[in-house]
Amino acid sequence: MVPLLLVLLLALVLFGAGFALNILWWIAVIVLVVWLLGFFVRPASSGRKGRWYRW
After folding, report:
1. How far apart, in whole angstroms, are the C-alpha atoms of residue 37 and residue 42?
2. SS3 of 1-55
3. Which residue in 14, 28, 32, 37 is a FRET match for 22, CA 20 to 30 A apart?
4. Nearest to residue 23, comparing CAs of 33, 15, 12, 34?
């Protein structure tokens, strides 16, 4: 009974990690898109050339 419970627990942990990693991939893609948009978006009110973020 204990090995069966351990296998089920391992399956749940791996399923949870896979779901969490999938969400982290989507967050990384969104951050990358926003970062790339920073190269093309210029501040309209400022006269100097620069990015919309400080760094």
Report:
1. 10
2. CHHHHHHHHHHHHHHHHHHHHHHHHHHHHHHHHHHHHHHHCCCCCCCCCCCCCCC
3. 37
4. 15
